[in-house]
Structures are given as structure tokens and as C-alpha cells.
Design goal:
By secondary structure, this protein is of the alpha+beta class. It is 63% helix and 14% strand. Strands 2-1-3-4 form a 4-stranded mixed beta sheet.
Length: 181
């Protein structure tokens, strides 16, 4: 179950302090690492969220994670608060919301380029530059290979979708042929 409303509140509070302390990128990195541990290692998630474990056990698990993250005092207190309030299940959502706040503050958009085959660095840079001109923001792209699009690319940044795939063009051609019958 996604806990978006709760996550937004916690993320906003953490962002406000991190911006004031000029530690937004440091906190972003730490939250991302914690979220990765939380989602990839089921034992970590279980140790922090399972109410069958006593509170002091969950506190000790978080202490070890805080040491591993080398978190400062405020972030440590924030993470301990999540344990005390039994909100650790919201860690992935808090990390996602926090990253969105940092990106918005730094005028960054994250996007994805889907292509039929692996794209080169030069082509990726050209696509990134074009998307930056269209959106007016710095764009950070991830790439994905999907042979089913046959050729071309599909670029997604926020709500903007630019579909130049052969599959879509063929589907459009098919529809226009059907419409003319």
C-alpha cells in the first residue's frame, strides 16, 4: 500500500530542513541508499516494519543503518522518528517524494528513453539536449531497450511523451487505412 500523503508530509519536513542546512543532495543520497536496502533486502524491511519485533529491536536495526549511512544528527533523528511513529513502511515513498522536491528545487526533470536497440552516448546526448530545450529544465535520462517498438524512440519526461516509434507509426497507418474503407 502506497502511503503518498504521509510520505509527502515527511518529505516536505525533511526537505525544508535540508534546504536550510544546505544538505539536500547529501540527504537525497542517504535516503536513496536506505530505500535501496529497504526494497532489495526483505530482512531489512521486515526488521523495521514487523510489529512482532519489539520496539527496541527495530530501534537497534535503524541505529545500524544510520551508522552505515553515516547520517548526520538531524537525519538520524528523522529516521529514528520514523521508527518510533511506526512509519518505516513509508521509507520508499518518502525517498521518492523527497527526490521529487529536490528535483523541482533544482529545476531537474527525470525522463526515460525507450529504443529498439541500445542507443549511443552521442544520440542520447542529442535527445537529452532536445528534451531540455522543450521542457526548459535540465533532464536526467535513463534508457531502456524494447525490441517490440521495431525502430525509432519513445521519450518520456514528466507528462510529455514523444513517440517516434515505428510500431506507433504502423498502428496509425493501420487506423487510417481502416478509416478509409
Amino acid at each position: 500500500m502506497r502511503q503518498t500523503i504521509i510520505a509527502k508530509r515527511y518529505a516536505k519536513a525533511l526537505f525544508a530542513v535540508s534546504k536550510e542546512e544546505d544538505k539536500s543532495s547529501e540527504y537525497s543520497k542517504s535516503l536513496n541508499e536506505l530505500e535501496q536496502l529497504f526494497t532489495t533486502i526483505p530482512e531489512v524491511r521486515d526488521a523495521l516494519t514487523n510489529t512482532l519485533y519489539p520496539q527496541d529491536v527495530r530501534n537497534k536495526v535503524m541505529e545500524h543503518l544510520i551508522k552505515a549511512l553515516d547520517a548526520d544528527l538531524f537525519l538520524s533523528n528523522f529516521l529514528n522518528l520514523l521508527v518510533q511513529k511506526k512509519r518505516t513502511s513509508a521509507i520508499p515513498d518518502i525517498a521518492e517524494q523527497y527526490l521529487a522536491l529536490v528535483d523541482a528545487d533544482q529545476n531537474i526533470s527525470r525522463g526515460k528513453v525507450v529504443s529498439a536497440s541500445e542507443i549511443t552516448g552521442e544520440l542520447q546526448a542529442k535527445v537529452q539536449s532536445t528534451l531540455e530545450n522543450i521542457t526548459g529544465k535540465k533532464v536526467i535520462l535513463t534508457t531502456e531497450v524494447d525490441p517490440s517498438i521495431i525502430g525509432g524512440i519513445i521519450a518520456k519526461v514528466g507528462d510529455l511523451v514523444l513517440d517516434g516509434s515505428i510500431r506507433t507509426q504502423l498502428a496509425g497507418l493501420n487506423e487510417s487505412i481502416k478509416g478509409s474503407e
